Amino acid sequence: MPRPKRHALRCHSTPTEPPVEPEGPSNVATRSEPVPDSLPQHEPDFPDDAELCNEPNLRPSRRESNKYWTVDLKDENGEITKARLRVNDVYVLLGSKKIVLEWNELGQPIRESGGLLGQFLGHIASEFTNFPISYTKWSKIPTSNKEHVWKNIIQDKFDVSDESQKKYIMGSLGKKWRDNRSRLFTELYDQALSWEDNLQKRPTYILVEQWAAFLQYRLEEKTQSMTEKNIINRSKQNVPHTLGSMSIARKRDQIEMETGRTCTRAEMYAISHKKKDGSYVNDKARQKIEELQMQSQLSSEDDAYTTVFGKEHPGRVRTLGQGVCPSQMFGSTSHAGGSSSSNYILKAEFDANIETMTKRLEENDAEIKSLKSALAYMMQHMGGSLPPGFPNINQVEDLGSPAPAQTREDFRRSSSNSHDPQRNASSSRHD
């Protein structure tokens, strides 16, 4: 039997302002705060679970429960409380409480609040009354629609106002909107059926004229050609990641909280392409990881990525997740201090190099101690003496000790002596 097709959870909306008529293929009535489906009686709404939290940012590295998200709420007086929310609970936040989001250095949402935001945005993007399916591109959707969602839905539920945060959220909505449109066409359109029959298969929450405009766009020769190219390109992506629905930013933050150090791009690539048992997803993933590790020892991490994977594509940077573009990471940093994101990556590379050098020093020290012990054993049990000029056993104990570090004054004194003609001449006469 064919498997039943699943559709995204629908969020019913009630308008709070008059419908608008943006320029486009159909009249669109923007919507405001959706009304959630009824919640199970055995799961209490979040106000009963809310607790005061004096230190809201102290979170465990992993999600506390798969049934809800543990987040911070801020009221109009700035007071912070901790709450356990499901995505449907966001629609019925009481009073003026808003969810506090946590962001990393690259401007990406992290922790459990970031996970809740991503799930909520998926619901909003599937609400085609706010973002009509009939528009050919996300950029074609009127700004008035996007601003209405930003001000009356996103800012009404989340404590956000920064322009960079808005850019990330709207970009995420656009990606989820495109994915939803593609999924609907793949699941519902049947080439064996007539045009009229395919029109009848439209979801009930999409207007007839919008569904017709969408099907007409998808059946255009230009669109079909572009779709075929995308299918070919996706078929070449034969190294799947293993993060599931968790974003790269949230996974990196989780690892950094557990290890207490910055996670490099090379490490994130290895982590996101390994299974739970530590094995690689396939042989090609193993090969890429080994090449990346080898190249990282010979050059900088950015150069290693270019060597192994090629030049970065516009609009994204590998293993850094959504919202980070090449110009942000590798653009001009001639101004003092560089960009925060560039400093972030430089710090990651520096920490990784320091850790590698420390491990090598420890390994060398252990090997030297082993050699000293073997030499001492041979001298005690086999007799004999060391060749002239060779350090004795007591001196061998100092072989593993590091040389005293030169201070800046030692370096200056040595440098000035080497450039002092009188001192050099005096030294040559003594010789």
From TrEMBL:
It comes from the Eukaryota. One of its GO terms (molecular function) is rRNA N-glycosylase activity. SUPFAM superfamilies: Ribosome inactivating proteins (RIP). GO terms for biological process: negative regulation of translation. Residues 1-61, 386-431 are annotated as: Disordered. Residues 1-10 have a biased composition (Basic residues). Residues 414-431 have a biased composition (Polar residues). InterPro entries: Probable_transposase_24, Ribosome-inact_prot_sf. This is Transposase, Ptta/En/Spm, plant. It comes from Handroanthus impetiginosus. The lineage of its organism: Eukaryota, Viridiplantae, Streptophyta, Embryophyta, Tracheophyta.
